Amino acid sequence: MSSGVQAMAPQALEVRGLSKSFGGIHAVKDVSFDVRPGEIVGLIGPNGAGKTTCFNLITGFYTPSAGEVRFGGTPVTGRKPFQMAQMGIVRSFQKTNILKSLTVFENVLTGHYLEARQPLWRTFFPGRAVRRTEHSVRESACRIIQTMGLTHRIDTPASSLSCGELRLLEVSIALAAKPEILMLDEPAAGLNSQEARTFGEVLKSLRGSIVRSILVVEHNMNLVMSVSDRVVVMHFGQKLAEGSPAEIQGDAQVIEAYLGGGKKG
Q1: What residue ranges define each of the domains in the chain, with the CATH number in brackets?
Q2: Among residues 55, 88, 28, which one has the least CA distance to residue 240?
């Protein structure tokens, strides 16, 4: 980003030399990039480029063969996914984790598990602290739902939501865990052009306010280029290019490998 203050701020997320092999296949090889405070960073590449594997390495679902992940200056390589979430690295998934039988409000309540988790004995003997936490969680859920533009659907079962509304609900659930950095894996999958534009505007409103930073894997190039401060391009498991959306769109290697090379993402 152009601001000198932000350029000097500590890195929210640092990925250094990250690699992962499955047998003899290098799914991710020597990938390095940063996600700085206040940024939205897009991670793109053709199918099979290694984007989701990279996500899984950063968030603890896979153990890297080599390399390091640091968050806020602290090494976090190899920590379990729940430990990553507790530290503030929260991700969504390509396959939804929404409970279709529950309402929008109930789904967002379930996302507050990191804050609301209580010892078993308090379930049977709830005291003032438990009631205070419950009140706080319910207020937080309402605020998130309002921010995501779903207030008019707050009591609607998730099974009745449109595809676009489901994507907004997925992000709402992730926000309930109070992430420092929000990591979104294909969040615009299935959205039409108008829904994708609306979703992009919501993402930009979250950055630097509700969440510090956002890292998004996405095939919708219009969305990525409209919301990202920087874009990282992967190809065959390696980082091919990194730069502003304008720089990436004008990069001959990227055009050949992805944007104009005939491969669909």
Answers
A1: 1-88+179-265 (3.40.50.300), 97-178 (3.40.50.300)
A2: 28
